[in-house]
Amino acid sequence: MTTLFALYVLIWPALTLGVLVLICRAVLRDRREAQKEQRELV
User: Fold this and answer.
1) What does the pLDDT look like over 1-42, one tens digit per residue?
2) Cα–Cα distance for residue pair 37/23, rounded to 1 Å
3) Label partner for 11 (CA 20 to 30 A): which of 17, 22, 26, 40?
4) Taking the mean position of all CA atoms in its chain, how far away is CA 21?
């Protein structure tokens, strides 16, 4: 039971990291496209 609880507690930081990586990749891709088209990101 302790192992199950530990996995439950540790899954949230892993999910958060995954979402953060996804957002960072999207922003970097948009930044590269903006630089290629010589326009501002915002």
Assistant:
1) 899 999 999 999 999 999 999 999 999 999 999 999 999 988
2) 21
3) 26
4) 2
Those residues with Cβ within 8 angstroms of residue 30's Cβ, 6 or more apart along the chain or in another chain: 41
pTM: 0.73
The total of other beta-carbon atoms located within 10 Å of residue 34's CB is 13
Question: Which residue matches tokens 């630089």?
Answer: 35
Q: Which residue has the tokens 């970097």?
A: 28
DSSP for 5-26 reads HHHHHHHHHHHHHHHHHHHHHH
Q: Tokens in use for 2?
A: 């302790």
